Amino acid sequence: MTTAAPTVPLSHGTEMPLLGLGTARMDDAEAAEAVRTAIEDGYRLVDTAENYGNESGVGRGIRDAGVPREELFVTTKLNKRWHSVDGARQACENSLERLDLEYVDLLLIHWPNPDQDRYVEAFEGLLRLREDGLVRAVGTSNFKPHHLDRVLDATGVAPEVNQIRLSPYATRASTHAYHVAHGIVTEAWSPLKPATMLEDPVIAQVALRRGCSPAQVALRWLTQRGIVTVPKSGSRERRLENLRSVEVQLTPRDLDDISGLDRGEDQVTDSDEFGH
Questions:
Q1: pLDDT above 60 for 1
Q2: Alpha carbon distance 266, 15 (integer Å)
């Protein structure tokens, strides 16, 4: 019997699984195998991006798994060269062709790239794509609150999801609070980094109390608070362990203890300076 991740509602009506498979740094062949087996094992959310260079492999894995399309939630992301209304459409059409899909469930602007100052136009393009049914939900990635403010001021619409670097060592509390206040679902990338975090005595003690692994503790600290996450692993055994984290139940004390591990923004790439 496979484990199924619970879902969280997005503001436009879509239900998004709280835990999925990340595919960064996988080539097409690796992605195809990982996606196929992950779906067979119960994953329903798959996260890719134009910049990962593996959308074709992800699409092949989806087809090979043989699960009805409507049961899956597929996310991809567009790069800065497409930051315009027409560019967002072209990027979406390109991704759909590589994925061999008729629509994606969530399309994200991968980085704001404020130096070129066109991310608002890109978001306007996403809204049109949602209207036309090419995407079911729209969002951003690595946006700071002041980037989100500009999107809201210009369009009157908040992204449904903002995917950011977030882990027990980088809790991003103020950004998460902003998301909650504006009805934006937070999604965490690199939730298990740095690897030394899983050796932290606090996480180890919680894992001992709950009879699970440190990685499961770190992931459940996210999903139990309604934060989506997409850990990446090349190991099928590890992927199964990650998925089964949704079966763990942490206490309020556990959650507070883990949140106390925050080390600030030092590990977080500055999206005012970096982007692609």
A1: no
A2: 33
What's the pLDDT tens digit per position in 234-254?
999 999 999 999 999 999 999
Give domain limits for the chain: 7-259
Determine if the peptide bond prior to 231 is cis (ω within 30°).
Answer: no
* Interatomic CA distance for residues 136 and 127, integer angstroms: 10
Q: Length of the chain in residues, anyone? A: 276
SS3 of residue 180 by DSSP? helix
Strand runs (DSSP E) across 21-99, as ranges?
21-22, 45-47, 73-78
| Catalytic residue list contains 52 | yes
> Element (H or E) spanning 155, and its range?
helix 145-155
**Residue 9: which residues within 8 A CB-CB, separation 6 or more?**
15, 16
């090979």: which residue's tokens?
A: 64
From the list 43, 52, 169, 178, the catalytic residue is: 52
Fold for the domain defined by 7-259? TIM Barrel (3.20.20)
176-189 pLDDT, tens digit each: 999 999 999 999 99
For the chain, what is the largest distance between any 2 Cα atoms, rounded to a whole number of angstroms? Answer: 53
**Sequence-separated (6 or more) residues with CB below 8 Å from residue 145:** 174, 175, 178
pTM higher than the cut 0.90:
yes
Residue 205 belongs to what H/E stretch? helix 201-210
Three-state secondary structure call for residue 215: helix
Q: What percent of the chain has pLDDT over 90?
A: 97
Strands 73-78 and 45-47: parallel
